[in-house]
Amino acid sequence: MTLADRAAAPDRLDLPAFDGLTWRPLERADTPGVHALVAAIEDADAQPFRTSLAEIGDEFDDPGRDPAADTVAAVDGEGRFVAYGGVATRPGDASMVRVFLHGGVLPERRGEGLGRAAVAWMTGRARQVLAASDRDLPGRILTYLEYGGPAAERRLYERAGFGTLRYYATLRRDLADPIPVVDLPDGLRLEPWAPALDEAVRLAHNDAFRDHWGSEPQSPEVWAHGRTLFAPQWSAVVVDPAPDPALVAGLDAATRAHVAAGGTLVAGYQLAIRAEQDWAVQGYTSGYTDALGVRRAYRGRHLAPALLAAAMRTFAADGMQYAALDVDTENPTGAYGLYSSLGYEKTVGSRMLAIEL
Fold first, then answer.
1. Do domains 3-161 and 171-349 have the same CATH topology?
2. In CATH, what class is 3-161?
3. Is the dihedral angle over the CA atoms 114, 225, 215, 9 positive or is it negative?
4. Are the C-beta atoms of 332 and 212 separated by less than 8 Å?
5. In the CATH scheme, what is the code of domain 171-349?
6. If residue 23 lies in a helix (H) or strand (E), which one and from where to where?
7. Could you tell me if 289 and 338 are in contact, meaning their C-beta atoms sit under 8 angstroms apart?
C-alpha cells in the first residue's frame, strides 16, 4: 500500500464553521494578532517559555509550509484571534515523510469545540500533504506538547488518533558551580562559529544525527530557517584541520565532496540561542544549547563535553546564571548520562504525539 493510500486524505477540507467566527488562512500581516493569542495561551498554561513576535513572523518563511494552504485561524467579530492551527513538512526528509502540527485556543474560549475543530482540520490537511508526496515512504503526523500543559489538549489529540511516541526533558546547569576543563585531542581545534563554516556544520549535523530516532537530514533551506534567536557569539565548532584521508574516505558523499573542494571538516558543534523573552518566566537567565552533535567517526574523544564546557564558560562570561538544553530521554548515544555527569538537572519536559502511517 502506498503512502497516498495509507494517508486516507479527505478529498475536500472545509474550514470549520462557528457562529460569530470567521475561519481563514493566516497571512504575514496577522503576526501581531497570532502573537497575542500565543502569549495568552502560554500565560494561562504557565509555560516556562515565551514565543517572541519575531518567531511567529519567522513561521511565514518556513520552507515546508504554504501559509495559504497549510494554516487556519478563527477571528471573532472584534478582529481578535481566538484559535489557530498549522502544518509544516521538512524538505529533505529521506526515510520518513513527516508533517508537524501546531495550534492552540484562547483560554477563555476553551470548551467550545474550537480545539477539536482545529485538530481535525490540521490532521486532515496533514493527510492531504502526505498523500501528495512523491516519496513512497513511511509517514508520520506529529505534534509536541509540554508536560505542564492542559490535560484536555492531550486528550484532544488522543481522540483524533494520536499516541505518545517519545519523551523529552529540558535540563539546566548552574553556572555558579565549577565548570570542568575538558581538553580536545591533539590535532583538533575549537573555533567560534562563523558563517563560512555553516555548511560544514550542517553536514556534520546530518552525520551526527543519522542514528538518532526520528531524525532526518536537514536540507540547506531547513537548516537556514528559524534563526531568529540564534546566538553566534555563544556557538562553537570543533574542526579537524588536517583530517586523515582514510577517515574522510569513510564519510558520507556530501562531506567527501565538501572536503575535496577545500571545505573545512567540522567534527563537532554546539549551536546556542539567546531566548531573553524566557528569562522572566523562568526566574533566571540562561544560555541554551539548541543543537549539539559529534560526527560518528569522532565519538569517544570527548568532543561533546569539551563543547559543552566551552559553552558554559561563554554563557557565564556573558552574565548568564544557567546553561540549558533539551534531550531525547532515549537518546542512543548516552547523551542523558553525559549531561548528568556535567551537572545538568531536569526541570521540565515535553512529549511527542503522533499518528504513524
1. yes
2. alpha beta
3. positive
4. yes
5. 3.40.630.30
6. strand 22-24
7. no
- Enter the C-alpha cell of residue 84: 489557530
Burial, 299: exposed, middle or buried (Cβ in 10 Å; 0-12, 13-18, 19+)? middle
By the 10 Å C-beta count (0-12 exposed, 13-18 middle, 19+ buried), 241 is classed as exposed
Domain boundaries of the chain, sorted by first residue:
3-161, 171-349
Q: What is the pLDDT of residues 269-300, one digit of tens each?
A: 999 999 999 999 999 999 999 999 999 999 99
Tens of pLDDT, residues 185-212: 999 999 999 999 999 999 999 999 988 8
Grid coordinates given for 229: 534567536
Give 54-89 pLDDT, tens digit per residue.
999 999 999 999 999 999 999 999 999 999 999 999
Q: Which residues pair with 173 in a beta bridge?
A: 323
CA 266 to chain centre: 22
Q: Across the beta sheet with 139-146, what order do the strands follow? A: 22-24, 71-75, 81-89, 97-105, 139-146, 345-356, 163-174, 322-328, 286-294, 265-273, 236-240, 189-192
